[in-house]
Amino acid sequence: MKKCRSLAISVISLLIICTVFFVNGGSKPGYAAMPNLPLANSLQTLHEDGRVFTIKNKKDKLVSKMSRIVSVGDKIITNKGEIFRVDKVKGESATAVFLGTDGSFKAWQENLSNPSVPVLNQVSKKKKNNKVGIYHTHSEESYIPSDGKRSIPGNGGVFKVGETLAASFKKQGVEVIHEKADHGPRDKNAYNRSRRTASALLRKNPAAIIDIHRDGIPDPDYYNKTIKGKEATQLRLVIGRQNPNKESNKDFARKVMAEVNQQYPELIKEIFIGKGNYNQDLSPTALLVEAGTYTNERERAEQAIRFLGDALPGVLGIGKAGAQKGSYGDPKTNTPGGWLALLTILAIIVIGGGAYLVITSGGFSAAREKISKYSSKEFSHIFTPRRRK
């Protein structure tokens, strides 16, 4: 009996430790008590400036290129609504298969072109908090033509891009929380360090949180674009596919690309759905935005992000632009992403506890026997009245 109770205590203790580890991201004490997948966070690879991953379709036509590592299973939704899935990667060259047109994205476009036809369950009259959070996981990223360096530890040029976005939001009557914490160095653990910042922003209950980056490909012309007579860069939205909120984040990104590009054609180049989490499990309205690349002039990236700041309040239903439109539907409720997050955590706890029991028992048969003995003895006391002496 004592051995069974000791075993039960050990298993329960392990489950508590596993829960704390996964909730806190397996990182420094003080990180947010919210669902996290630390292994998925560690999948976010170093963005090496100057390194280029090229994605082409079966006809050898360019689909996209970027400095982030591309993996089999990654997807791209172009600003025309085309979906491509990477099915082969060799070195820094990838091949993607065309999957067809994204129906949800096209539905958003049609809704915008014909306001009398609403998109089901996406416009809510529920009042949203009139604020947005901005931060920078890669806080040293900079723009060589304007900043003189591609990397400035603790004070990268992306901070000025963030300031431009904040100013644009404020002009729209939106409250902004712009966090300029240093999350360096720019390595695979940067997202674990920035998790504390993202979580602190979320405690203030913003309508969205935006993580601003820039790409690292050498070709500035890949992003350079004249939009409404202004010299700007294009933007890329990034969604992590090792992320329980993936479907909610992806739908939000579709809505953003559809509405922003209606006002500023081709401002958003694409949505990239890649390996990693990017702390987007924390919020269904989390955006990772890449504004140009390190060889672009920062002023072009600022112009692009200014356009984004003009259009985004209308998407979120906040500020002056959103006052008459209602707000983006609250994806935190009744979405596949929310249930998936809960099931993922439960699965981690069950698998971790089961593995520990098998290891300490010396095999599956011994573990099964211990469970059987424990349940037959312990649970019988729960359901059977004790006899008085």
Give the oligomeric state. single chain
Strand order, largest beta sheet: 2-1-5-4-3-13-12-14-9-7-8
Using the CA coordinates, give the radius of gyration.
24 Å
Query: Which structural class should the secondary elements be placed in?
Result: alpha/beta
Q: What is the CATH class name of the largest domain? A: Alpha Beta
**Beta-strand share of residues:** 15-25%
Run of helices and strands:
HHEEEEEHEEHHEHEEEEHEEHHEHH
As for the CATH topology of the largest domain, it is: Aminopeptidase
State the distance separating the first and last CA atoms: 21 Å
Largest sheet: 11 strands, mixed
- The overall pLDDT, averaged over residues, is 80
Count of distinct strands:
15
* CATH homologous superfamily title of the largest domain: Zn-dependent exopeptidases
Walk me through the structure:
- The chain is globular and about 70 Å long.
- The protein is an alpha/beta fold.
- It has two domains: 2-30 and 343-383, no CATH class; 124-334, Zn-dependent exopeptidases (Aminopeptidase, 3-Layer(aba) Sandwich), CATH 3.40.630.
- The protein contains eleven helices and 15 strands.
- Helix 1 runs antiparallel to helix 10 (336-361), helix 3 packs parallel to helix 7 and helix 7 (246-263) crosses helix 8.
